[in-house]
Amino acid sequence: MAAAAAATMVTPPAMMQGGAAAAGQLAFSQSSYLGLQLPTNSSPLHFTSFNSKSNRNVQLRCQAAAPSSRTTLPQLNVDITGPKKEVRIVERTTVRLALPSKGRMAEDTLALLKDCQLSVRKLNPRQYIADISELKNVEVWFQRASDVVRKLRSGDVDMGIVGYDMVREYGKDDEDLIVIHDALGYGECHLAIGVPSYGIFENISSISQLAAMPQWTEDRPLRVVTGYTYLGQKFLQENGLKHVQILTADGALEAAPAMGTADAILDLVSSGTTLRENNLKEISGGSVLRSQGVFVANKRALLERKEVLDTAHELLERFEAHLTAESQFTVVANMRGSSPEEVAERILNHTNFPGLQGPTVSPVYTKTSGSVKVDYYAIIICVPKPKLYHAVRQLRKAGGSGVLVSPLTYIFDEETPRYRQMLDALKA
Questions:
Q1: How many CB atoms lie within 10 A of CB 291?
Q2: 153: part of which helix (H) or strand (E)?
Q3: Integer distance in angstroms from the first to the last C-alpha of the chain?
Q4: The Histidine biosynthesis HisG C-terminal domain covers which part of the protein (predicted)?
Q5: Cβ density class 322-332: b for 16+ within 10 Å, e for less
Q6: For the chain, which ranges sit under pLDDT 70?
Q7: Per-residue pLDDT tens for 113-146?
Q8: What is residue 120's predicted lDDT score, i.e. its pLDDT?
Q9: Which strands, in side-by-side order, build the sheet including 44-51?
Q10: What is the CATH number of domain 328-407?
Q11: What is the pLDDT of residue 9?
């Protein structure tokens, strides 16, 4: 690339802060911006150094060893236009998707994307940025679950996948957050109060009884240890607990009551085994919310940038199609009949499994005594997985045979209902 090409001036830190330009200013060609793919060949880089003392440009040439693999770096969202000039924020053209970086939620999220034929490519395991080959304009950023929500609120990322508990705790009911898909099918749990099953709590079985205990005063409040300080304070106040002290801890909350450092805990519960093994119990009315993986986005980004809305639409279509199909089997059976209508009537009136809109009925051609004729019709229906055996029995009773069962990969509706709900929410 020629040194005389259009260049973007990059001001050294000293100049940006008002100091002297000790090392001059560098002008790089636009093709060297972050966000574009770096070349794999070791081609020379040309740039211009401005010498403030001589007041002239000096042409420089640099030979750099290129990496052995290709990678995509994040796009700059600032434009530094020249010496002593103000840094100008420029509009980001890429779509940023934030994913959890660690834990079971991270593993299950990547598994979901893979099932939806979306390949997340992270060439270096130490990197926190990746891409998806099927979505050309999307950057994937791996973040802590809490930071996924924080960066959605600030607009640093456009959409993300995270637990609903994180959205509520760190989103703090922000109207700029919109949950696009609220049931991705993994990470199911609930946030609940746990109290000891012994001592003064032995006969406490509900949140109202907990609130009515005379032990809690201004001088001796109920001590609740949790990682959910926003939700915890709000929930306890709404349920009549006036004298409460919220304590924070990073983990092993179940040990706090036994150690005497807290009276109760507020934590995520899956099966309840951990509570029971630590002599704790849930109480009626003590569940704050139910949580699982959700797909969430920045409302302003959806409203103001078409590429964000289009990407959200595609992701939503893929998620819905996969999750709908995941719970169904395709069932094919041969049935004797005089006509497709007669076979369809038997399926619709004598079974509980009509399919999505109705059964698909096709003729089965057989050769008998040298002539081809239709004695059977093949019917195709979708059946919920838990009800498969009931469907097979009903099909046999209706005259079906040769029943074939296959897993489904995707079911694409005419329009994804959640996409229409998202558009309605954006208009509100």
A1: 20
A2: helix 145-154
A3: 50
A4: 325-409
A5: bbbbeebbbbb
A6: 1-90
A7: 999 999 999 888 888 999 999 999 999 999 999 9
A8: 95
A9: 7-10, 25-29, 44-51, 56-63
A10: 3.30.70.120
A11: 39
Which residue intervals of the chain bear CATH 3.40.190.10?
Answer: 95-186+293-324, 189-291
Report pLDDT for 92: 83
Per-residue pLDDT tens digits for 155-208? 999 999 999 999 999 999 999 999 999 999 999 999 999 999 999 999 999 999
In the CATH scheme, what is the code of domain 189-291?
3.40.190.10
Q: Pinpoint the residues of the chain covered by CATH 3.30.70.120.
A: 328-407
Nearest one of 360, 353, 184, 169 to 266, comparing CA atoms: 169
The CATH number of 95-186+293-324, from 3.40.140.10, 3.40.50.720, 3.40.190.10, 1.20.120.1810, is 3.40.190.10
Residue carrying structure tokens 């059946």: 383
Mind giving me the DSSP string for 339-369? SHHHHHHHHHHH-S---SSS-EEEEEEEEET
Question: What's the predicted TM-score (pTM) here?
Answer: 0.77
Residues in the chain: 428
Helices 103-115 & 306-326, crossing angle to 10 degrees? 90
Give 284's strand partners: 206
Instruction: Give the H/E segment covering residue 25.
Output: strand 25-29
Give residue for tokens 């519960």. Answer: 269
* Cβ-proximal residues to 231 (8 Å cutoff; 6+ apart), any chain: 165, 168, 169, 191, 266, 288, 289
Instruction: Report the sign of the C-alpha dihedral through residues 299, 428, 188, 410, in that order.
Output: negative
Q: CB burial class (10 A; 0-12, 13-18, 19+) of residue 75?
A: middle
